[in-house]
Amino acid sequence: MFFGVAQAKPWMAVSRGLTTDDAGLYANSTVALDVKTGRIVWHRQHIPGESLDMDEAFEQVLIDLDGETHVFSIGKTGILWKLDRENGNFQSLQETVFQNAFEQINRETGELTYRKDIQEMKMGEWLSVCPSTAGGHNWQSTAYYPPQRTIVIPLSQSCMEMAPRSTTFEIGSGGSQGDRTWMPMPGTDGNFGKLSTYDVENMSEVWSVEQHAPFLTAAITTAGGLVFIGDYDRWVHAYDVDTGEELWKTRLGSSVMGFPVSFEVDGTQYIAITTGREGGSPWRVGDFLTPELVSPEGHNAVYVFKLNNR
What we know:
By secondary structure, the protein is mainly β. Helix content is 4%, strand content 42%. The protein is built from two helices and 23 strands. The strands form seven sheets. The protein has a four-stranded antiparallel beta sheet, with no helix packed on it. A four-stranded antiparallel beta sheet has the order 11-12-15-16, with no helix packed on it.
């Protein structure tokens, strides 16, 4: 069994009374457990001493390539990780959005080094960092498309200023303990939503699309070569999985969120997708940074679409 692990609490090392030199094992890790005993077989701590609420707690994508087994994951840093599934050995990484938290990334070992001001942060002092706590990636899961050996990743492009707060170390305290303000990511021209596809063999980007509205659903691919995804501005999109060309879209009653599903009834394929509001940090990007977009209250629903036969 493979699990992604969230961050330590409080978020920022100085609020924990520590420095970023304290690894905080097993936070921000991929952990492999023996399914029969629960014993930890291996772990890979992606960000030792994490201090910016950059979880690595999301989906683990298991992919076999030419007899080799891999596990792929991506956390809030927007760094896509490729590990050996048998032993957790680092194989490769790819940055999918702009980040400036790490001044050094060792592409041979996967070791990350925080900027000096993050390592030396003091209580109450503000620092700027990309991505924001909404993450370059968050709970909106990736999809794998086996025919092209590509992985399709919903991404988010926002940054923040953040300052640590003091806390008392007693039951019920701690929590986030970080003050934040949100802002657009440099170089994105106000495009908060991004959907990118990567070749899982060489980790190179195949295509990406960007838009003003944040994407708020997982991506789902179909054997017919489609990618479906929904956004804050109420749109459901269908893209060509090979090229990223938008083939269809329709607007729903409220922000499109959650996990699309595909199913078949009497030989006909359907896509179901949900609408609603709230949903933590990914939803806040739209609420805080795109107030001109339409995201009405109510209209919580499940919408079902029939795919035409090709």
